[in-house]
Amino acid sequence: MSAVAPDTEATFRSIAIGDVDAIEVAIGLREAQQERTGLDPRTFALVKIAALIALDAPPASYAWQIANATAEGATPEDILGVLRAVAPQVGGPRVIAAAPEVMLALGLVLDEEEA
User: Fold this and answer.
1) Which of 21, 76, 91, 100 has the smallest set of CB atoms within 10 Å of its CB?
2) Mean pLDDT of 19-31
């Protein structure tokens, strides 16, 4: 494995711990990407959640994208609508796997007997 430059390692660490300055760079890139799509920011964020569901994405991805979506005005009901909309295409297992991650990102908690 090749050596990792100190700046690269520091950037990874900053992003991993949620450093606002490091994340701000990622947000800037996100804004440029959104502008190129022609979608409004709310729709763009909801589409990205749909992609996460389809990809069976890791939990941290949901936390990030759902925070982006709610910051752009999406409601929990909108996010539930996305989950329902993609269900026929991605299948039940992906929807079932995504639901607890979405709940966690929205600050909801499953009871132990439900988990």
Assistant:
1) 21
2) 66
Query: Are the C-beta atoms of residues 46 and 35 closer than 8 Å to each other?
Result: no
- Tokens at residue 83, please? 């989950």
Q: What is the pTM of this model?
A: 0.73
Give pLDDT tens digits for 31-57: 677 778 889 999 999 999 999 999 999
Three-state secondary structure string covering the chain: CCCCCHHHHHHHHHHHCCCHHHHHHHHHHHHHHHHHHCCCHHHHHHHHHHHHHHHCCCHHHHHHHHHHHHHCCCCHHHHHHHHHHHHHHHCHHHHHHHHHHHHHHCCCCCCCCCC
In terms of Cβ atoms closer than 10 Å to its own Cβ (0-12, 13-18, 19+), residue 97 is middle
CA-closest candidate to residue 95, choices 105, 104, 106, 86: 86
